[in-house]
Amino acid sequence: MFSSTPDFRRLETTLHHQEPDRVPLVEAAVDYEIMGQFLGRPVSAEDLPAQVMFWSRAGYDYIPFTVAMMSPGAVTQDSQISKTLRDVVLKDAADREDGWNLERRSFIRTEADFESFPWDEAARPDISPFYRIRDYLPEEMKVIALSGKIFTLSWMLMGFENFAISSVTYPALVERLVEKVARIQLAGLREVARLPYVAAAWAVDDLAFGTGPMIHPRAFRKLIFPWYEEFARICRERGLYFIFHSDGVLWNLLEELIGLGVRALHPIDPTCMDINLVKEKVGRRLCLLGNISNEILMTGTPTEVACLTRKNLKEIAPGGGYGLGAGNSVPHWTKFENYAIMHETVLEYGGYPIQIP
Fold first, then answer.
1. Which domains does the chain have, with CATH numbers?
2. Most C-beta atoms within 10 A of its C-beta, which of 136, 143, 194, 307?
């Protein structure tokens, strides 16, 4: 087994397209239930010592915390938004047939809706974990701040259909909403970016379907990417690495993301993108993270997971620039034995130079 001791320099070396001692393990989120099975004890959002214990003992070089209008814990159907925001805008969801259909349901359709929306209550960030964690963080371990969701939270508040239509018929309202969301997200990022043990910022914002971008690339350039330019500027000023997560087919957006200063891309969606082809095209300009199929982690056997993990280590890891993890996140429905074998396979076979027959 190669070292499982946390050392952020391992991931940092990878982000510089060099080979560290071994391939880093990388996840944006692991459900508390999975953490608990790994540790053999319950883990909760309030139990920071247990969270640090999991991330460090499981071989990660960092612990991720979310900031601003995002949920900092369970990987569930509604974890896109904070508990406070859910309590405010989804309080009657159970009484509506379409209560959880955020593609169709709209909370903001007009200027009046925007003005009356409880922004102060719904968008209040809880960044206390970023301060409390310093008492538990191992010396060489860092924190990665998960933020972003500028596009996702904007369309969730308008409903996707209404967002898409309004971007043409009522663009001023859409631009105003995106700006409001972006400023809330960026304010939280600015605050935590000051902390010396925060080493990277991970923007989590799904931009694409399995067939291509969710809106036209021109719309991303006009509405969304200027705010990620500000996100990148904060990272540069604070010396943070800029990581980006998006599911879906991203070919039409890769150059845009690289131009923004994104250092690493997650998760190279295995349902619709060939990671070997991505490595061939942009692997010297973007580090690649993730890519182990969540479907196989849920329904496959440990042998299948181990084979897929070894395949990625053999084909993608040589030369550096690859961190291995799930093809999205590690939700509670992941078979624990499959998560465990993925983790163990990296520690057994992921040492450099990669030597897998």
1. 1-40+267-357 (no CATH), 61-264 (3.20.20.210)
2. 143
